[in-house]
Amino acid sequence: MQRVTNCILIHDDHVLVIKKPRHGWYAIPGGKMEQGESIKESVQREYWEETSLTLSHPRLTGVFTFNIFDGEDVIQEWMMFTFVCHHYTGEMTTYCREGELEWVPLGRVHQLPMAEGDHKIFQHAFTSNELLYGTFQYTKAYELLDMRLDPADSAI
Fold first, then answer.
1. How many beta carbons lie within 10 A of that of residue 31, not counting itself?
2. How many CA atoms lie within 13 A of 37 on its CB side?
3. In this structure, what DSSP letter does residue 53 have?
4. In the beta sheet, which residues pair with residue 31?
5. N or C: less crowded end of the chain, CB within 10 Å?
6. Angle at 144 between CA 138 and CA 148, to 5 degrees
7. Which domains are delineated in the chain?
8. Contact 11, 85 (CB under 8 A)
9. Verdict on whether the full-model pTM lies above 0.85
10. How far is C-alpha 155 from the geometric centre of its chain's CA atoms?
């Protein structure tokens, strides 16, 4: 099972997102954990690698599992640890090999094209300090088949 960390950076009523070229969807900057890293070390390293920004005091906001199905078969499975952060240092890079970085007003995030579950994760991070647990199941075309969130009412 692949482990991934990412962080929702909120600053001046904006959030930093990355537009991925594969689907043209927006996502939360982050990436794969390396052997021996803690989840906090991973999110700080991954975020810096993609943005050149150093996160200050990221806080864990959600732990999620994802299963990608091809028919009845699970073809991909990963676990994602999502952080939220309000402070950073450094200057954002002008080039990111993973996609285009963009500061988006908080009120516009729900309008961006992205995986359906990511909208729920953003909504939770914007409205709650509680830790959210979730499971998402997608088709290989990333159509949402099912999701379970705990607490159930915090991200809906």
1. 16
2. 17
3. P
4. 5
5. N
6. 90
7. 2-60+78-131 (3.90.79.10)
8. no
9. yes
10. 14
Residue of higher predicted confidence among 23 and 52: 52
The neighbour count for residue 95, using CB atoms within 10 Å, is 7
Strand partners, 74: 69
Structure confidence by residue, pLDDT tens digits, 87-99: 999 999 999 999 9
Write down the residue that tokens 């991934």 correspond to: 4
Tell me the residue type at 22. Answer: R
Q: Residue 140 phi/psi, 5° resolution? A: -70, -15
pLDDT digits (tens, 9 = 90+) for 129-139: 999 999 999 99
Residue indicated by tokens 């021996």:
36
- Assess contact for 111 and 24: CB atoms under 8 A: no
The answer on pLDDT for 16 being more than 80 is: yes
Cα-Cα-Cα-Cα dihedral sign, residues 50, 53, 54, 59: negative
The Cα 20–Cα 22 span in angstroms is: 6
Question: At residue 156, does pLDDT exceed 90?
Answer: no
Q: Which residues pair with 73 in a beta bridge?
A: 70
Contact 107, 31 (CB under 8 A): no
